[in-house]
């Protein structure tokens, strides 16, 4: 007779309690973001809270709890930034178009010009927990004010208060003074215009209706919702502007403007050349050193191996900054040696060809140890019998390497070479620390340099420029994304067909 023991069922109450607390915290965060004027991020957090509650609170979907964190991380930190960047590419988002429409109106209508004829000094007097503003030139004293929020107080003739604050104490109240408006007996409104004075402020712009502002000189400004600016009848744009969708205008600028199309194409070609040359140089140098270290008659192998791996152990940014000093055109050791030997002093940072050569040299120094380590492992996997058989047939060492060794290590190397190409395609750190993309490409309307790759070019366009053009940078990023996706797909197809050929299956 067999005895069946029922397994205890898991108690869902503690789990549901934890799920409820976490979901409530996420919902509160979503509401807070929405209240702060960030509805998009609030919606993302709301979606995360909903999915968390469904996956961890429902028995039906509880099995998905192991993959939920990974999927959520991919959607939030990869998919969302990509989609958001692509969306920016279809807008006029820039340093001149950061605000919303209503906020733009608030900024413009808050501008004013001080009427110096009404400017007069002031002092602050304490009145219990409140304060009074004393204008000695006109002999006016304000009603009690709190100086903690926006308020308007009337001024009336009075004697000078006996409890005037010292200047340094009054300066501590400057934030509250900036919120205060005083009304004189004749109805004039004056505001704080500095640490020492109150005066009448004439607004530069007055809102007349929903889409129109009037400048103090009488000029009427009309809101252009296609460009995101207020404009005069002559077409003059008044910054700041607001964000609007402009469709494919950024892409039209890239392909229609020679000042943008020319440098973009040049940088596009150089990016491929830089990534390809870097991979080829690193692979060649690393493989050569690995072959040398495999030589059985070489003494002190361990010493050489440690010395050759050192560039990989040193943080890359330190090596880059050291090389930046070594290649210094005036005081660098490399130019001092070249001048002593050949009597020339190369312009590494101002000549486009030399600057690009320098970038590849430095990148080779940074990348060859990785290739060398991989090659040392792959070379040990090549059967020695094949090499000995070829040697007995009279093949030279060079021929043995190119006909036996190299064909056997290339297949396992290929995915790593593709990965290295993709890394160098976006190697922003090297360009940014070594040359910052310089020397500049002449005749451009955007910041673009001879050593810029697409990643550094987009970065400079978006963040390292007085007229930061986030929309244009987003459009270029979308183009980069499409090109890299096409290359990745082509590499995938090529590798799959190569694997099919090696296995004898039809392509």
Model description:
This protein is α+β, with helices and mostly antiparallel strands. The protein has 4 domains: 12-66; 101-108 and 205-242, no CATH class; 112-203, Beta Barrel (Periplasmic binding protein-like II), CATH 2.40.430.10; 256-503, MetI-like fold. 55% of the residues lie in helices and 12% in strands. The protein has helices spanning 12-35, 39-57, 68-88, 101-110, 167-171, 174-178, 249-256, 258-293, 301-313, 316-326, 333-342, 352-380, 384-392, 397-425, 428-434, 454-463, 470-503, and strands at 112-114, 120-121, 123-127, 130-135, 140-142, 151-157, 180-183, 189-192, 197-199, 201-203, 205-209, 212-215, 220-224, 229-231, 237-238. An 8-stranded mixed β-sheet has the order 2-9-8-7-6-5-4-3. It has a 5-stranded antiparallel β-sheet with strand order 11-12-13-14-15, covered by helices on one side. A two-stranded antiparallel ribbon has the order 1-10. Strand 5 and strand 6 form a beta hairpin. The longest helix is centred in the middle third of the chain and has 36 residues, at 258-293. The two termini are 61 Å apart. 21% of the residues are buried. The mean pLDDT is 89.
């Amino acid at each position: 007779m067999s005895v069946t023991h029922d397994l205890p069922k898991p108690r869902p109450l503690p789990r549901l309690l934890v799920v409820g607390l976490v979901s409530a915290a996420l919902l509160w965060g979503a509401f807070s973001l929405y209240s702060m004027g960030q509805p998009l991020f609030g919606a993302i957090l709301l979606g995360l809270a909903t999915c968390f509650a469904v996956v961890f609170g429902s028995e039906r979907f509880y099995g998905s709890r192991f993959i939920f964190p990974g999927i959520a991380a991919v959607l939030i930190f990869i998919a969302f930034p990509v989609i958001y960047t692509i969306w920016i590419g279809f807008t006029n988002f820039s340093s001149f178009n950061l605000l919303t429409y209503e906020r733009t109106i608030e900024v413009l209508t808050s501008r004013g010009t001080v009427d110096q004829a009404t400017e007069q000094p002031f002092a602050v007097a304490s009145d219990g927990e409140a304060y009074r503003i004393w204008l000695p030139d006109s002999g006016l004293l304000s009603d009690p004010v709190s100086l903690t929020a926006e308020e308007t107080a009337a001024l009336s003739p009075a004697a000078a208060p006996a409890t005037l604050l010292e200047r340094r104490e009054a300066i501590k109240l400057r934030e509250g003074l900036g919120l205060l408006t005083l009304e004189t007996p004749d109805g004039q409104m004056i505001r704080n215009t500095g640490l020492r004075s109150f005066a009448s402020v004439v607004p530069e712009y007055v809102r007349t209706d929903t889409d129109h502002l009037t400048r103090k000189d009488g000029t009427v400004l009309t809101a252009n919702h296609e460009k995101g600016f207020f404009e005069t009848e002559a077409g003059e744009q008044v910054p700041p502007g607001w964000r609007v969708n402009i469709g494919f205008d950024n892409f039209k600028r890239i392909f229609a403007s020679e000042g943008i199309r020319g440098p973009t194409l040049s940088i596009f070609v150089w990016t491929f050349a830089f990534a390809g040359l870097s991979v080829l140089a690193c692979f060649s140098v690393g493989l050569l050193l690995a072959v040398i270290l495999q030589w059985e008659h070489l003494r002190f192998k361990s010493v050489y191996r440690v010395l050759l791996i050192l560039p990989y152990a040193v943080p890359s940014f330190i090596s880059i900054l050291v090389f930046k000093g070594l290649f210094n055109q005036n005081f660098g050791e490399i130019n001092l040696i070249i001048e002593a030997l050949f009597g020339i002093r190369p312009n590494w940072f101002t000549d486009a060809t030399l600057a690009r050569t320098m970038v590849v040299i430095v990148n080779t120094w940074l990348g060859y140890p990785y290739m060398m380590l991989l090659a040392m492992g792959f070379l040990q996997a090549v059967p020695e019998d094949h090499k000995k058989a070829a040697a007995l047939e009279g093949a030279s060492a060079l021929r043995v390497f190119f006909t036996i060794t190299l064909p056997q290590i290339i297949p396992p190397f290929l995915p790593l070479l593709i990965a290295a190409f993709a890394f160098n395609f976006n190697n922003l750190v090297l360009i940014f620390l070594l040359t910052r993309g310089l020397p500049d490409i002449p005749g451009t309307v955007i910041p673009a340099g001879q050593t810029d790759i697409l990643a550094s070019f987009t970065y400079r366009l978006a963040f390292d420029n007085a007229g930061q053009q986030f929309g244009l940078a987003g459009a270029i990023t979308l183009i980069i994304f499409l090109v890299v996706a096409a290359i990745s797909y082509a590499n995938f197809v090529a590798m799959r067909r190569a694997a099919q050929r090696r296995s004898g299956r039809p392509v």
